[in-house]
Amino acid sequence: MTLKTRIIPCLDVKDGRVVKGVKFLDLVDAGDPVEAAKAYDAAGADELCFLDITASHEDRGILLDVVTRTAEACFMPLTVGGGVRKVEDIRALLLAGADKVSINTAAVTNRQFVKEAAEKFGDQCIVVAIDAKQVSPGRWEIFTHGGRNATGIEAVAFAREVVSLGAGELLVTSMDKDGTKSGYDLGLTCTIADAVSVPVIASGGVGTLDDLVAGVSEGHASAVLAASIFHFGTYSIGEAKAYMAEAGLRMRLD
Amino acid sequence: MSQSVAIIDYGSGNLHSAAKAFERAALESGIASTIHVTSDTDVVRAADRIVLPGVGAFADCRRGLDAVPGMVQTLEEVVRGQGRPFLGICVGMQLLASRGLEYTITEGLGWIPGDVALIEPDDKSLKIPHMGWNTLHRQDDHPLLEGIETGPQGLHAYFVHSYALTPQRPQDVLALTHHGGPVTAMVARGNIAGTQFHPEKSQKLGLKLIANFLGWKP
Questions:
Q1: Mean pLDDT confidence for A90-99
Q2: Measured distance CA(B217)–CA(B187) in Å, rounded
Q3: pTM of the model as a whole
Q4: Which of A74, A168, A181, B94 has the fewest C-beta atoms under 10 angstroms from its C-beta?
Q5: How far is B82 from chain A (nearest CA, A)?
Q6: What is the sign of the dihedral through the CA atoms of B168, B149, B4 and B2?
């Protein structure tokens, strides 16, 4: 009886559609996030993550509709991030059916926003997404806007700070590794996971099932997030879970 | 005739997905039920079954419940007085305690005597919140757990909490989970039951437990 390692497929959503689509199943509409969510629900994913990359804030209603329809159909935890800047954004997402909301740039530009959000909605539903790049051995700094903008803020100190302000979970993405399929930045993941009391989700760079295992065994993450290896059907959630269980990790197989 | 289930809305998070999970469980189990998400005490009074959800901090939830005119009084009457089947979920279960110790000391409903205190795992590398999927260890047989496989090889439930209720009477604990020590996962006493985990987010186990609640005759 112990907490299991979570596998979290992440869907990039733009204007209410899954970017690039999900190809691992014969979905009627592979670009519909709700269809993709249902498929991952059936496949045994432990949580789902939607990352909204819609450029315009005015199109927020489309995302909320997607979240509402997903929450009606999938009885599993759902985290939604992207463009969360105000308390009202969080409230709208939670009311639509998100269980957790991920804050990225707004946590960097205004640390107090994390505190305000955690006090209002509870630590358990506030995830802070940390996008970091290595700048020298053992030092990572926060980048915003998809890795384009340097902030000079040291990632581990930032992680500690947002946890002290009430973040209930950290989603740690290596901007060096993201999209490379060469594995998580284990140094980054492990350094942050060991520095904070809350769970850390490893993100960015998964290419193989061994990468998922390493994220937990070497990166000390509580959960592993991946996108393309699942969306393109390279591996199924079931295969990933079986492999990780075989490697000695505790997985939920029901 | 369809029974009615009142899910109490007191401003604590999204109840739409909870309502959908109850509707799905009712449909799948063939127990005709109408689900009302409501803050109307008349609807609660008329309901055959009552659900008290809750997310966030204990004190906030208590404040929210108190802010609905007559709701606590109505619950006292129909749940404690008339024995209506009741299910508390997450902080909705914690509110059954005598006191919550999160941030400040807050009085609970006192239906399940005990305190809600921070989980302190004996293994310091374990993370708080206790967030994710864990198994249940049943302390007793109960209609709510019928057909649900428990134990280390059993089904999993989805937890997300940093505080837990420890009942004063061990017999009030229906199921435990473990996170660096035992953590109360379910309580039950007469017609009153509660789950620390979220059945509406717990896929197979959750839908089965909700169906069991819909058919429960305490």
A1: 90
A2: 16
A3: 0.95
A4: A181
A5: 32
A6: negative
